[in-house]
Amino acid sequence: MNVIRVTLSCAAAVLLVTIGTPATAQPDVNTVSERTVEVTRLAFRPATIRIQIGDTVTWMFDGNSGEHNVTATGPSTALDYFASETMSGGSYSHTFGRPGTYMYRCTEHPSATGQVIVR
Ligand SMILES: [Cu+2]
Hints:
Elements: H1 2-19, E1 36-39, E2 44-45, E3 48-51, E4 56-62, E5 71-73, E6 89-95, E7 100-106, E8 109-118
Parallel strand pairs: 1-4, 3-8
Antiparallel strand pairs: 1-2, 4-6, 5-7, 7-8
């Protein structure tokens, strides 16, 4: 379902640019792509993502590089803990309600790390 939502949002973004509809129709359209993180074999892309309070980040698992997870780590877990299941495909989403720098990693591949900066 998240794949469909993201795809539709991107399509809407292209449509808005194409036909020049006022940005007020969908004020967050320019940052939609920045809130999606790709989960690949050994890395999260982008590894750092900057969002605003209340934004939702969706991690998309590429489905062809084994099983991975998104697991919060470090001091920020005191503010907000999040963890996905270990899976090969699909997606995981989390909404961030408090400002901070949230570190996370794939516990199956500890060298794969990322951070979400919430302002
Ligand atoms: Cu992994």
